[in-house]
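agent> Task received from the user: take the single chain below, predict its 3D structure, and emit structure tokens. No templates, no multimer pairing.
agent> Plan: (1) validate residues, (2) run structure prediction, (3) serialize to tokens, (4) report one or two observations.
agent> Step 1 OK, no nonstandard residues flagged.
tool_call: predict_structure(input=
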Amino acid sequence: MTLANLRQLYDGFDEEYECPILDEDRVVDELENKMKEGGIIVDYHGCDFFPERWFHVVFVLQTDNSILYTRLEKRGYSVKKLQDNVQCEIFQVLYEEAMASYDCEIVHRLPSNVPEELENNLDQIMKWIEQWIKDNN
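)
tool_result: status=success, residues=137
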């Protein structure tokens, strides 16, 4: 269960996209103390409302559009939601948002097309974490 679901950090429901509307201010307030402690991984489909001070690294998962389309279609996404997600990927909106929100040197793109890439991504992230621990202890 996500933090947003657990704490009901929503501000209504978007009928067009058939999903709750996240209350970004409440999410930041809820996470502030935990983020000060460090060692937290945040998984979200955007980043522009998270404070820059929270992160040492940002990973943006990217998927080929034909794979993304099929993946989202299987999840039962509405046509509008599906098209908007694919268009977002085409224009690299999330990557550009991350580059604009954080120091470019901490933003990394990772391919997310096939299961083997998932394992490679996990390996890369674990190596980054291990190096960060060495550098900060």
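agent> Step 4: summary for the user.
Residues 1-40 form one domain.
agent> Done.
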